[in-house]
Amino acid sequence: MHTVLSTDLSVAILAGIVQGIVEWLPVSSQGNLALVLTLVGTDPAVALQLALFLQLGTTLSAATYYRDEIRTALAAVPGWRPRAAYEGDNAIASYVVVACLLTGVVGIPLYLFAVDLAGQLTGGVFIAVIGVLLIATGVLQFASESVSMGGRTTPTLRDSVLVGAVQGVAILPGISRSGVTTSAFLFRSYEPPAAFRLSFLLSIPASLGAAVLTLLSAGGLPGISLSAAAVALSVSAVVGYLTIDVLMRVVDRVPFWAVCFGLGGLAIVGGGVVAVVV
Question: What are the extents of the domains in the chain?
Answer without folding.
Answer: 9-277
